[in-house]
Amino acid sequence: FPYQTVTGSFAKVIHGLNANQLTDQVIQRSKRMILDTLGVGLLGTSTEVCHKVTRYSKIYSSDLSSTIWGHLDFRLPPLYAAFVNGVAVHSMDFDDTWHPATHPSGAVLPAVIALLEAFPQKKKISGLDLLLAFNVGIEVQGRLLHFSREARNIPKRY
């Protein structure tokens, strides 16, 4: 089929990725990005904005639940856990960045971890699966930003 949409082409590439395509360099950089993101996220759990979204999110409950970083006794549905943890990561503005201006790991890692935690216990997710999901998320986020006309002139708008 010669005609394919940009979205269809993009989805086909993303769907075709697998852990064998992760190079040693990508794996090492990803581990560093993940460790850094967890660190700033844990630090961010002490911020006022994180306390506010945590309190707000307590009204939601579900059988599926994921960890809220820094809280051993509090879990939320994956959507809200990703939201609260993402706010924690970005709340002090120490999370990683690239150009055009974006914070890739703070958006991707909380979502990936929340989803992985929500999987049934019998479905084991390997460390390489986590790294693949993280890198696919970073790639999708970066390409969507790259495709965005609004993002191209961010430095000129400030």
Automatic annotation (TrEMBL):
<dbReference type="InterPro" id="IPR036148">
    <property type="entry name" value="MmgE/PrpD_sf"/>
</dbReference>
<dbReference type="InterPro" id="IPR005656">
    <property type="entry name" value="MmgE_PrpD"/>
</dbReference>
<feature type="domain" description="MmgE/PrpD N-terminal">
    <location>
        <begin position="9"/>
        <end position="151"/>
    </location>
</feature>
<comment type="similarity">
    <text>Belongs to the PrpD family.</text>
</comment>
<dbReference type="InterPro" id="IPR045336">
    <property type="entry name" value="MmgE_PrpD_N"/>
</dbReference>
<dbReference type="GO" id="GO:0047613">
    <property type="term" value="F:aconitate decarboxylase activity"/>
</dbReference>
<dbReference type="GO" id="GO:0005739">
    <property type="term" value="C:mitochondrion"/>
</dbReference>
<dbReference type="Pfam" id="PF03972">
    <property type="entry name" value="MmgE_PrpD_N"/>
</dbReference>
<dbReference type="GO" id="GO:0006952">
    <property type="term" value="P:defense response"/>
</dbReference>
<protein>
    <submittedName>
        <fullName>IRG1 decarboxylase</fullName>
    </submittedName>
</protein>
<dbReference type="InterPro" id="IPR042183">
    <property type="entry name" value="MmgE/PrpD_sf_1"/>
</dbReference>
